[in-house]
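for the record, two folds in this file. i put them one after another cuz i was lazy. first one right below, seq on top, structure tokens after. the second one comes after a little note so u can tell where it starts
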Amino acid sequence: MDEWIDYYGSTHTIYVSRLHRDLHFEVIARDIIGYITSPDAVVLDYACGEALSAAKVADACAILYLAEPAPSVRDRLIARFALNTKIRVRSLDELRSMDENSVDLVVMNGVAQYMTPEELDSAFDAIRQLLKPSGRFVLGDNLPPGVGMFRDVLALLRFAATHAFLRDALIGLINTALSDYPQLRHRIGLQRYSETEMITKLGAAGFKATRAPRNTGYNPWRMTFVAHN
């Protein structure tokens, strides 16, 4: 995962425009809020990225932890939300020192594909320790076998057409194709799990999980799972 952490901590071309980036995080925030059942909830966004719309999530809960592995991204999160008393930024290592059974909802969105199976197992163990007995773990935007870059591109183009940045999307896709992202994706690879494989993997970590009827984010070909202790 280290090379992916370095990539997302750098100036990259994953987002084709500022509008795309902003809308991406707005959609994720909206979907996270949909899983918050109480304004008193403690929420953890695991490997959250830039989390530009985290303030909206924080408005819907009592405390929002933003856990991010990339130091440069963490620094930006700390600066961005310095005045928001509900938001607390942590490294992934710092989660180990949090109280057990202290979090109502954990969300890990669009992250599992960048982890080795062993790294994902370790993350599941850490998350399970943090969750309250009544808590939920939402594992979103997972890549199933057979869904490749073509479907990612199609999902982006549909999203761009809906939100009027199709021209930027087309230009951005060319820029991404010419960047180091395709080579990195080919060299390191992305982890893919079928529905049965992910439910089994979550079960081995002590979770009871089901596939959600709708994926988080704007890619309908990916999968989201909802798990609890």
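(here's the note) second protein begins now
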Amino acid sequence: MTATPDLRTPRLASPDLLRSVFRRHAAGVAVITARGGEGPVGFTATSLASVSAEPPMLSFGIGTGASSWPAIAECDHVGVHILGEHQQELAATFARSGADRFGAGTGWSEGPEGVPVLDGVLAWIVCRVVARVPAGDHRIVLAEVVLGDPTGAGRPLLYHQGQFNGLRD
């Protein structure tokens, strides 16, 4: 049985309405990284989407007020890392404002095009940024896949109802 929407009392569009609806949408969790002028930068993203197979392209959103935005606004390449359910703490670190994201608790190395590549992820790719599209207080970054490794072991990490979760059996 499905719930019948109450159309007599619709809520007006607002940031709170959007957040409330998307809390109910389970999303995969990725970390986006880039080389910045002061060192590596990165952030947790649940907005990752496949855009095109030919050429292979993806997109993600980033707020223009985010600490990583200045580097993402200028870089030529980004790293995209698909996190496993064993990486809830890593996801939280990259989501937390002011966190030392590349400190002692984060395993990483410099990868192709100087992009930071995280250790232990389910998959990673390096992409060439092709566009940054204004979208309200965010930018949608379109990027073309250059190379990567899809062979990490484990199950995906999900974000749902404001929490990181693994898949249930």
